Amino acid sequence: MTTDTLIGPGFSDPVFQSQGAFRALLAALAEPGTQQVVADCPAPPAGLQAATATALLTLADYETPIWLPEALRDGPAGAWLRFHCGAALVTDAGKAAFAVIDALSPEPALAAFDAGNDQFPDRSATLIVQCAALEGGQTVTLTGPGIAGSRRIAPSGLRGGFWAEVVANNAGYPLGIDLLLSHADAVIGLPRSTQIAETF
């Protein structure tokens, strides 16, 4: 198998596409709970949603280590990210600036990722959670900065206890990781400042 068959193309117009993707990702985190479409996504490697791959292509570089599940790290996804981003792929979740998990996978726990520190809370990790869908699941209510009143979301295909982990992460604010829930070409942002209440 040759490198050409393993590694697909990245952005065809890097400046235009990365700017558009950055705006969508910024909007997702500035307006938590809103679905933002990441347009002009390149074809993602196996195991990555289009929005996930495009977010990493936009945000990651040689200074931002990425954590991936072993199956992705050692497969086409890992090769694609090394080639197009120049990023190191780490095996220690706590050393990652960006990370990708499958929403149904029981591990690693959100607490395994770098939540920043008192001097540099902004140096925490950003975690992309790949969901079965961004609707159709258990409804949770969001409040906090960027939300007028409250907002509800219901992503599906999440592991048991996921929302309890998010609540625990938010309790440490201003420390804590930032989350992007992804499916297909869309994302929902859940920054550490967003408060979560489960709706029954």
In a nutshell, what does this entry contain?
The protein is α/β, with parallel strands linked by helices and 200 residues long. It is built from six helices and ten strands, in the order ααβαβααβββββαβββ.
Tell me the CATH topology: Rossmann fold
Number of domains: 1
What would you call the structural class? alpha/beta
Main beta sheet: 7 strands, mixed
Which series of helices and strands comes N to C? HHEHEHHEEEEEHEEE
Shape field: globular
Q: Could you tell me the number of beta strands? A: 10
The top level CATH class name: Alpha Beta
Query: Strands of the largest sheet, in order across it?
Result: 1-9-8-5-4-2-3
Q: Give the CA-CA distance, first to last residue.
A: 50 Å
What is the CATH architecture assignment? 3-Layer(aba) Sandwich
**What helical percentage do the residues reach?**
25-40%
Mean pLDDT: 92
Radius of gyration, whole Å = 16 Å
Count of helical stretches: 6
Q: Which segments are poorly predicted (pLDDT under 50) over 5 or more consecutive residues? A: 1-5
β-sheet strand percentage: 15-25%
CATH homologous superfamily label: Bacterial phosphonate metabolism protein PhnH
